[in-house]
Task: inverse folding
């Protein structure tokens, strides 16, 4: 389905659609005849009433119609009708979101809706509120939420081309293990949520048919081009020798597709910057711009900045170790004094290559798991009243200006990242203010180094309610997906949403693609009944030997968010009953 402007020659077809949609709700012939003049669309209405249509891309059938009427700042949602056989497919929600996007861009502040009684709940669920007036109809008003300043900086007000080049980015800093490559393939699906409103999504692995439609319906994207299974393969020419193999490097060998994507004139948003992504977008980073992806370099930057925040920031003491033996000596020395340590590789994502050693007993397992090469031993800090694991997200735009996105609470078990929550009240005001100030200062240093793009700074809570910065990520991250989804839902459904990423929901049974999509559709409806939104984020692991899915959940209250997470986790466990013998 795609959304486009209506044409004058479609007036008769659209009038018939409106009358059929109206009749679907049980009005008698006399009533329909009485309001026929109000429902008939003329050829001259298309521009005057800003009429748009939803069209099935395969059949060409017109499935819905909507209009944005009046002059800014106050306007009207004059039409919103869906072909009866297409009701329930998210077309009305997508048209509504498109009208809000157009209203926002045209400077409207609010829209009035005169609704039939049967549609009131639909509009209220999308943020409209009842007001007086309207006569026999129910009058509602929706405030047009301004686009976040950071969203404008990130996308330039345009839709985007999203690139899931997770493995390609990571392999700039060292080869991935088989486990790491598998994890990065699953995680690359999160790149679909690398902006609030993508136009194109390019992924290295093949994803289940119907997954993008689920995302598009929940987030009111409209038509999205998907190119999946774009990993290096035997059927294409080899990538240039100077560009590491990976998704974007492979994409560059597909000249027709590359020309099409460049011809769209939309921003390219890679998961992380590489030489190949710079060639594709025409905006390469200068040498050294990614140096603070190194945990060692990041620690040195934190130490330089910390004196400006004497009451707020504590930088963990970090020592380099040439290998496992040297690291063991440093960890043992700290353990004898009763201090815990964090054993780190210099590069790694999601907690990979990072282990907490609280006692000597933990050391052998940690040493077996970390790489043999250079390591870092960092003091392990705990304390304070704030949530233990926080992250600041920000953007350095093309001019080098830093834009704050926000602060999130991360769900970390040991050192393994499992998700994050963003939204009002999630992070206490004091720690949030510290993280915003320090994260912004880090961004200015990144800008001076030549970096451009998304970044985050991770913190743990230290004694005396100080924050201890632990690493910088020069790429999109799990929390970034939560911020993107929050921005889109706030724009299209109103309110101030809480959004939680849950990257690993275990499944008690393996689900093939068709069964997975059917299960996710049912789960989406069950979450909606709780007042929550479910967005499946990682759909590629449901048939793995240890199957799981990743999801994002959104709601307007913490209670609803927690209830939705409990429902999703219970549903994953309940899948095992399908194969349990009857008693």
Result:
């Amino acid at each position: 389905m795609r959304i486009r402007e209506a044409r004058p020659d479609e007036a008769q077809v659209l009038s018939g659609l409106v009358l059929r949609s109206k009749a679907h709700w049980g009005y008698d012939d006399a009533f329909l005849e009485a309001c026929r003049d109000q429902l008939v669309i003329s050829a001259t209405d298309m521009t005057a009433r800003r009429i748009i249509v939803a069209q099935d891309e395969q059949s060409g059938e017109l499935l819905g119609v909507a209009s944005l009427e009046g002059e800014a700042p106050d306007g009207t949602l004059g039409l919103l009708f869906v072909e009866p056989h297409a009701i329930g497919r998210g077309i009305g929600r997508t048209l509504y979101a498109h009208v809000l996007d157009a209203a926002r861009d045209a400077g409207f502040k609010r829209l009035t809706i005169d609704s039939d009684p049967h549609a009131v709940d639909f509009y209220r669920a999308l943020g409209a509120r009842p007001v007086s007036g309207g006569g026999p109809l129910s009058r509602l008003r929706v405030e047009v939420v301004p686009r976040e300043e950071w969203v404008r900086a990130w996308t330039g007000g345009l839709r985007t081309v999203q690139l899931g080049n997770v493995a390609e980015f990571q392999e700039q800093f060292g080869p991935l293990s088989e486990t790491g490559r598998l994890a990065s393939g699953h995680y690359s699906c999160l790149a679909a949520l690398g902006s609030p409103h993508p136009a194109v999504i390019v992924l290295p692995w093949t994803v289940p048919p119907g997954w993008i439609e689920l995302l598009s319906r929940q987030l009111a994207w409209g038509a999205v081009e998907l190119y999946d299974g774009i990993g290096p393969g035997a059927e294409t020419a080899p990538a240039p020798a100077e560009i590491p193999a990976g998704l974007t490097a492979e994409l560059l060998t597909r000249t027709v597709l590359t020309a099409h994507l460049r011809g769209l004139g939309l921003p390219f948003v890679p998961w992380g910057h590489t030489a190949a992504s710079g060639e594709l977008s025409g905006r390469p980073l200068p040498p050294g711009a990614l140096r603070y992806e190194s945990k060692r370099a990041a620690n040195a930057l934190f130490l330089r900045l910390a004196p400006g925040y004497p009451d707020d920031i504590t930088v963990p003491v970090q020592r380099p170790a040439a290998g496992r033996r040297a690291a063991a000596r440093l960890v043992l020395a700290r353990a004898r004094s009763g201090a815990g340590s964090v054993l780190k590789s210099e590069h790694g994502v999601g907690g990979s290559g990072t282990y907490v050693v609280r006692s000597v007993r933990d050391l052998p397992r940690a040493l077996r798991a970390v790489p043999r090469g250079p390591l870092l031993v960092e003091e392990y800090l705990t304390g304070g009243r704030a949530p233990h694991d926080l992250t600041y997200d920000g953007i350095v735009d093309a001019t080098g200006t830093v834009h704050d996105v926000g602060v999130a609470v991360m769900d970390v078990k040991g050192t393994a990242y499992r998700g994050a929550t963003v939204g009002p009240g999630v992070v206490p005001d004091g720690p949030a203010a510290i993280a915003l100030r320090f994260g912004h200062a880090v961004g200015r240093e990144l800008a001076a180094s030549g970096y451009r793009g998304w970044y985050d700074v991770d913190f743990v809570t230290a004694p005396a309610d100080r924050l201890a910065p632990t690493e910088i990520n020069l790429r999109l991250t799990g929390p970034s997906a939560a911020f993107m989804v929050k921005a889109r839902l706030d724009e299209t459904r109103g309110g101030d949403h809480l959004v939680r990423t849950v990257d690993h929901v275990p499944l008690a049974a393996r689900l093939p693609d068709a069964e997975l999509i059917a299960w996710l559709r049912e789960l989406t409806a069950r979450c909606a009944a709780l007042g929550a939104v479910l967005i499946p984020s990682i759909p590629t692991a449901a048939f793995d030997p240890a199957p799981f899915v990743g999801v994002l959940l959104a709601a307007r209250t913490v209670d609803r968010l927690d209830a939705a997470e409990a429902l999703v986790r219970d549903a994953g466990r309940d899948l095992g009953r399908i194969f349990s013998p009857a008693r």
